[in-house]
Amino acid sequence: MNPLRNNIAEMNGYVPGFQPADESAWIKLNTNENPYPPSPKVAEAIRAEVGADGGSLRKYPDAASREMRAAAAELFGVSPDWVISANGSDELLNNLIRAFAGEGEEIGYVHPSYSYYSTLAEIQGARVRTFGLTEDFELADFPERYEGKLFFLTSPNAPLGFAFSREWIAAFAKRCAGMLVVDEAYADFADGDVLDLVREHENLIVTRTFSKSYALAGMRLGLAVARPWVIAALDKIRDHYHLDRLALVAATAALRDQDYLRQTLARIRATRERFTAELRAIGYRVIDSQGNFVFASPPDRDGGRVYQALFERKILVRHFSDPLLAHGLRISIGSESDMETTLAAMREIG
Ligand SMILES: *Cc1c(COP(=O)(O)O)cnc(C)c1O
Description:
Layout: H1 6-10, E1 27-28, H2 40-50, H3 66-76, E2 83-86, H4 89-100, E3 106-110, H5 116-124, E4 127-131, E5 150-154, H6 166-175, E6 179-183, E7 204-209, E8 222-225, H7 228-237, H8 245-256, H9 258-281, E9 285-286, E10 293-297, H10 303-312, E11 315-316, E12 329-332, H11 336-349
Parallel strand pairs: 1-11, 3-4, 3-5, 5-6, 6-7
Antiparallel strand pairs: 2-8, 7-8, 9-10, 10-12
Helix pairs in contact: 2-8, 3-8, 4-5, 9-11
The structure holds pyridoxal-5'-phosphate (PLP).
Residues 88-90, 114, 154, 158, 183, 185, 209, 211, 217, 222 line the site of pyridoxal-5'-phosphate.
């Protein structure tokens, strides 16, 4: 007899985007990493924390992430008890399910979006219900009142790149009997966000990550903003020293350098618009994107063919075998020169 819990024995683990061992040999546009380094203040803060001999590492970090939470709270215009830090926003998604959805209870999300919600629900033994999208990116068959414990709304959507409007999300929150989590992993690249709506909606939780806009995927940092009672619950169930000393000073420095963030965001958005226009000029269908990636389909709607041809040229993009997505590719926005190289390759591939 298998001693594992049934759901663990039966589940498939999540498969993250491919990380090649010889990273520098590739143009890597498959995991929506930032092409530019984090703010120079980040490396400075890490060096200062490590000091000459790493002596500070003897000591545990601040279990409550006080400085980082204060910096985030100031930036967002809320009090620090509305903010929680996390070891990547993935930690928050996991703890939200643990906090709100018991075994056999339902969570929902949009398909296609971030399939990791499903993996996390399987671990918990929660049930999963997905809702499709209409042609104009509305939710298909969503009930007037949704009774699931949690609903994850990825906005901007990954991998498609469109964002739900603020008015739509506000109305949607009222249709959710349980909690609505707006996963704003890409909101910094978008024209707007819904962070301030947490004040108006008791059941709204907004999650953010430092992995994309702040170029800190390697440090594992995330944040959530919600009502204090939600934050307090998430605080109870997390690992107590979930962020190390270096991650904490890195996050604080990154949050305090908004000028640098604005500069890199502007560059990435400009590259995104140029890349979109150029792809359309060679016959690709490209969804208008609010993220740091685009979803694009070649004229023959064979995403796998182009993926393979790019792979042979050491350009790595994301192709999903899911029938709803197999016609296209998700391509992260890299540096200007990486996107020029990629475009040239795509013109050649046809
Ligand atoms: C990248 C991503 C995350 C995970 O962010 P981490 O902070 O790196 O864990 C969560 N949700 C979406 C939609 C993402 O694209």
